[in-house]
Design goal:
This protein has about 180 residues and is of the alpha+beta class. It has one domain: Alpha-D-Glucose-1,6-Bisphosphate, Chain A, domain 4 (2-Layer Sandwich), CATH 3.30.530. It contains two helices and nine strands, in the order βββαββββββα. The strands form two sheets. A seven-stranded antiparallel β-sheet has the order 3-9-8-7-6-5-4, covered by helices on one side.
């Protein structure tokens, strides 16, 4: 379990990312954790309500091998680590327009929260997913911080608008997949 009240550091490639957890925890609580990306400048946030159990939403979305079902930009994916998906799980992915990159889970608390980093030549991404139970199912919130390299940094405002639209589309597809009968 990742500590909620203290800092957690996970390394990804050559960089170290510091994630500071906020929240309360009592034995038996189903705690939704958030990190310092919440409310941070430059972060794209999208949310959708899904008529499905939090565990189903969490398991479906954390399995990057299933992401091509809802993200047509993901052309290839391979799991690089053995064992079940969790903290430290890494995937090699190829995205249309981005090329090859590596994604690593840097926080993982089933079924409420996970965070990942993606490193590529052109763009690094820090992404967080929060799964919250609602009266009729689950709220899925996604926060994305884009860290472009080189001249691409000049296009950051455009990239954020593009990412917001992409996540709106992705979340609608996730919702449709998870709300299918059977």
């Amino acid at each position: 379990m990742i500590p909620i009240d203290g800092p957690a550091v996970a390394t990804s490639g050559q960089r170290a990312l510091r994630v500071k957890w906020r929240g309360r925890h009592r034995e038996g609580d189903n705690v939704a954790m958030t990190s310092e990306l919440l409310g941070r400048s430059g972060v794209v946030e999208n949310t959708i309500e899904i008529a499905a159990r939090p565990e189903a939403v969490f398991d479906y979305c954390t399995d990057v091998c299933r992401e091509p079902e809802w993200n047509p930009k993901l052309l290839e994916v391979a799991k690089l680590t053995d064992g079940p998906i969790g903290l430290g799980t890494r995937f090699r992915i190829r995205l249309d327009g981005v090329g090859w990159s590596t994604t690593e889970n840097i926080a993982f608390e089933r079924p409420s929260f996970w965070a990942a980093t993606t490193d590529s030549k052109r763009l690094d991404v820090h992404i967080e997913f929060e799964v919250t139970p609602t009266g009729s199912g689950t709220r899925l919130s996604v926060r994305t911080l884009l860290l472009p390299h080189g001249v691409l940094r000049l296009a950051q405002p455009i990239l954020r608008r593009y990412m917001r639209g992409q996540w709106e589309h992705h979340l609608r597809r996730i919702k449709t997949r998870l709300e299918l009968p059977g």
